[in-house]
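Hi D.,

Good news: the full-assembly prediction came through. Inputs first.
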Amino acid sequence: MITPTHYLALSAALFMIGAIGVLTRRNIIIILMSIELMLNAVNINFVVFSHQIQNVVGQVFAVFVICVAAAEAAVGLAIILAFYRNKETVNIDDMTLLRW
Amino acid sequence: MGEAVAFYLAAALILGFAVLVITARSTVHSVMFLVLNFLSVAGLYVLLSAQFLAVIQVLVYAGGIVVLYLFVVMLVSLKRSAEAHSDPKRLGRLGVVLSVAVLAEFVAIAAYGWATPAAVGPGLQASNVEQLGRALYMDYLIPFEVASMLLLVAMIGAIVLAKREL
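Then the structure:
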């Protein structure tokens, strides 16, 4: 029998994989992809609770999360392109422009 | 029984592809594994009787966002490896913090499951798309319009940022 607990554990594990990706990889494109993984984990939580309490509002919020993820990906990747044009790197260790 | 098999299959695919995304050497491979991960998540949504969200997931994530990533990966030269030295001390501290966090999460989930042992219900009745559309356009009309403005601003911002000169 699959209970919401199973889904929550899956989502927690997926979120942790995303967090590990953000914290250990140095390639900023991979880091953005890990953020997408974490947003997906959040979406799974929303849909599971929506399913459990028989209320569609959770799915509405999942739609909003997808919308924000699309905006974030577009702007983030544009920033990466602009940065790469100036500095020829996608390694976040070299992105120290705003550090003093 | 069938639901359990489907759930464990989807869960294994999701976690396996997620691990491959963050461990793959080549960025292009990472993007490909990301597509497969998103498709598995869409399968999970179907399992939870959220068909509309599954379709959106395939269209927006696997169809749109991933293509965007692929474009950037292709535009950014991949000759030099972007991975610099990895500091073992920092990784060790990171491991401790993350293990504590995931332990706390699992404890919270177990407490939740113990407090409310409710099973997953029989699924939302009526058409999923109809219900979602009703909620989106009646109760959440203002957030919906704000989201459309956000997308417009993001589109203009991305064009301005990526343009060589204005």
